[in-house]
Amino acid sequence: MPELQKLQQLKDETGELSSSDEKRYRALRRTAERELLMNADVICCTCVGAGDPRLAKMQFRSILIDESTQATEPECMVPVVLGAKQLILVGDHCQLGPVVMCKKAAKAGLSQSLFERLVVLGIRPIRLQVQYRMHPALSAFPSNIFYEGSLQNGVTAGKFMLVCCKHPSYLLDS
């Protein structure tokens, strides 16, 4: 939008706009944001960010919540109430749960994620069987303790060390 670009450039150069230019700038920016969101194939945001008024009237076919076991149930409900036909929760209820600092809230059940609640209610999650993030010697412990020995290694010890030596940042991510 040429007019929006012109006003942005003026704002960058002068530091501020006149009252009328500021109103016009905000209106053009809202229009551009709405157009961008309406034409997007994928919109990424946090669960709470899904409650942004700019998304309020949008309909989504699918909602995917990554690390859903680390979110409180009310957090997960923010995108859920947008009315998608498909909800995909990704996470591992055997790992970190939601961080709830208030003891009353934790005692009231907010330290249980929506993912874990659904598992308790009998919905069986699909579990990935192969891990690529840990050295095989390290993966034996969680495999045996949390996953009935079913966790398989996607890399050998030698291959893991080769990858980590070539990409030291991989060690920090693991």
UniProtKB/TrEMBL annotation:
Molecular-function GO terms, alphabetical: helicase activity
Pfam families, per database record: AAA_11 (PF13086), AAA_12 (PF13087)
InterPro entries documented for this protein: DNA2/NAM7-like, DNA2/NAM7-like_C, DNA2/NAM7_AAA_11, P-loop_NTPase
Biased composition (Basic and acidic residues): 9-22
Region (Disordered): 1-22
Domain DNA2/NAM7 helicase helicase: 5-101
Keyword match Nucleotide-binding: yes
Keyword ATP-binding: yes
Segments forming domain DNA2/NAM7 helicase-like C-terminal: 110-157
Endpoints of the signal sequence: none
UniProtKB keywords: ATP-binding, Helicase, Hydrolase, Nucleotide-binding
Name of the protein in question: ATP-dependent helicase NAM7
Annotated gene: UPF1_1
